[in-house]
Design brief:
heterodimer; A: mainly alpha; MetI-like fold; 2 strands; 1% strand; B: MetI-like fold; 2 domains; 13 helices; globular
């Protein structure tokens, strides 16, 4: 006599429930990012794209103007063009010393295997953690009008005092010095990390072959760091083109004498929030987006393929 | 008396090898130390100006020794701007964003790292792509939307959109993939642990160092943020430290002692936080950025 076994009752579960049960938590966990992104980034981005074809001052109804904003940006607007030139010049002036110094110091500390390496890292990194406003204020007093401490050092060394922030030709160097000082440590730390991944055998083999320090620097260190250097160049340029705080504090919202310190971001800011031209500045923001994207793309193309020479 | 020389390179006189090496090391030490001192000098100068009467800032020759007037300068500062209020605002803003980011980013990183779900790769790629948009481009869209929401002059506009960030998720995912053994999670699942419990009891304790580094990064970013608060806030008593200091500068007053004491006070917490976690923070940064390549 076989016992009648009771088959468990089978309740059909819908595919949808199965799907949710299996993957629901995962989607839940990642949802905050996508919800926030779509709400606060994607939608506004799309909306301001439409806004760039309008004129709007934030209060009265917007007025459709087609391509007028874009045309005006490229033809009539002096300050926009100047701000782009300024940003590029400033970016280039900052990029080269910043990355070279960072690399040199990183190599120096790493290769000489200095003790107190950590201490040096902390010292060089300290400027980075401070806000652009704070460092710009300190440098305001270092540059001064006529009698800043920097000028004092210069006069003692036999040079003339320079009115750094007043004369338009020295505004950019002044900003450059501040920015280089502010950001060298960041790249130095990145380069040091990269240096640690270079096997020591390469250097040993090179020195057996008679290579001096300089030769092994050019032929081993730089090629091995190629990816790292490319990475930092791209990142840096994108950042440089968007500098706002330092020039703003050093020379004011208008960019100082002859607007020598007017960067793209400062110009955008004044168009949007001082002149209340939201449509126009939306167009400007998109043009800047295009410029930055093209530059990044070009960088990767140029430096990625042929290496750094 | 003739001395026989051997031919070849051995006849050239090089300084003994070890002297050359010592010399080179010395030069490197001096140069690198000089650079480090250059990096540190503005901080020292900030402290000097903050502790001296304002008129001495531009004296020739300059006074380079700290003074005793820190408290007087602070008092003058407090007369000009609501500095303490500003401090509180900044602290509130930075702490809120940091807690939210730590929570949401690690949760999402956990999901991307240890779960498999349809569309995972596409969604992650999308996330990476969002990092390509320069922040500057987002400012006007963000402002316009805050206007629609009615969130102008409120910290909601600053905190909520920043509650999750792509870089943090990327970093967390990387760390969790490396540091959290999947077997551990499987074992917990077999024991019937709920997903959130796994996150809270297994993942979080393991990723604490990465959370610490991310926390410092986010905190720092908020503390030093100028542009967004400057745009969105209009009541001076709501300003964070960066905007308050900028207002002081824009007033073009000549009380540099007060201004610098404010700057000094605003920088101090960050420096302290940084020095406490410096080594771990720096190694976290380098690990994160190297993985970006």
């Amino acid at each position: 006599m076989a016992e009648a076994t009771i088959a468990p009752t089978y309740t059909p579960i819908s595919k949808k429930t199965k799907f949710l049960r299996r993957y629901g938590m995962a989607y839940l966990f990642i949802s905050p990012f996508f919800i926030l992104f779509c709400t606060f980034a994607l939608f506004p981005l799309v909306y301001t794209f439409w806004l760039s074809f309008n004129n709007w001052d934030g209060m009265s109804p917007s007025k459709f103007v087609g391509l007028a904003n874009f045309i005006r940006l490229f033809t009539v607007d002096e300050f926009f063009k100047l701000s782009i030139v300024n940003s590029f010049v400033l970016g280039f002036m900052c990029l080269v010393p910043k990355l070279s110094l960072a690399l040199l110091v990183a190599v120096a500390i790493h290769s000489a295997r200095l003790k107190l390496k950590d201490l040096y890292q902390v010292a060089y990194f300290l400027p980075i953690i401070t806000s652009p406003v704070a460092v710009a204020i300190v440098f305001l007093t270092i540059y001064g009008q006529q009698y800043g401490i920097l000028n004092y050092i210069l006069t003692r060394l036999g040079f003339h005092a320079v009115q750094w922030l007043v004369v338009s030709s020295t505004v950019k160097p002044a900003i450059t010095i501040l920015i280089v000082w502010h950001e060298v440590g960041w790249f130095m730390v990145i380069y040091m990390a990269g240096l640690q991944s270079i096997p020591q055998d390469l250097y040993d083999a090179a020195s057996v072959d008679g290579a001096g320090a300089w030769a092994s620097f050019w032929n081993i260190t730089i090629p091995m760091l190629q990816n790292v250097i490319l990475f930092t160049v791209v990142i840096d340029i994108i950042g440089e083109l968007q500098i706002f705080g330092e020039p703003y504090i050093l020379v004011g919202p208008a960019g100082g004498t002859n607007r020598a310190g007017l960067t793209m971001s400062m110009n955008l800011f004044s168009n949007a929030f001082t002149n209340l031209r939201f449509g126009y500045s939306s167009a400007q923001a998109y043009v800047m987006f295009a410029i930055i994207s093209i530059i990044s793309f070009l960088n990767i193309k140029i430096f990625g393929r042929s290496g750094l020479r | 008396m003739s001395t026989t020389y051997t031919t070849g390179k051995q006849t050239e006189y090089h300084a003994p090898f070890h002297i050359r090496r010592i010399l080179r090391r010395a030069i490197i030490y001096i140069a690198v130390t000089f650079g480090a001192l250059l990096c540190l000098f503005p901080f020292y100068w900030m402290f000097v100006v903050a502790t001296r009467p304002s008129g001495e800032v531009f004296s020739f020759p300059p006074v380079v020794v700290p003074g005793t007037l820190l408290f007087e300068n602070i008092q003058n500062l407090l007369k000009m701007v609501p500095f303490i209020r500003s401090y509180g605002n900044t602290l509130f803003y930075a702490l809120s964003v940091t807690t939210l980011v730590l929570f949401f980013d690690s949760l999402a990183g956990f999901a991307f790292a240890k779960y498999k779900f349809p569309g995972q790769n596409f969604l992650f790629g999308f996330l990476l792509a969002t990092m390509m948009v320069p922040g500057l481009v987002m400012i006007i869209p963000w402002f316009v939307e805050m206007k629609f929401f009615g969130w102008l002059d409120s910290y909601k506009a600053l905190i909520i959109p920043s509650a999750v960030d792509a870089f943090g998720i990327f970093w967390m995912r990387q760390f969790i993939m490396d540091a959290v053994p999947t077997e551990l999670i499987d074992a917990a699942r077999i024991d019937g642990a709920p997903d959130f419990g796994i996150y809270y009891r297994i993942v979080v304790p393991i990723i604490t160092p990465a959370l610490g580094a991310l926390a410092i990064l986010v905190f720092m970013g908020c503390w030093n943020n100028l542009i967004s608060p400057m745009i969105i806030l209009s009541s001076p008593e709501k300003f964070p430290l960066t905007v308050t200091l900028k207002t002081l500068v824009a007033l073009r007053l000549t009380d540099y002692g007060a201004l610098m004491s404010g700057t000094f006070l605003s920088v101090l917490p960050i420096i302290v936080v940084f020095l406490l976690g410096a080594r771990r923070f720096i190694s976290g940064i380098t690990a994160g950025s190297l993985q970006g390549m």
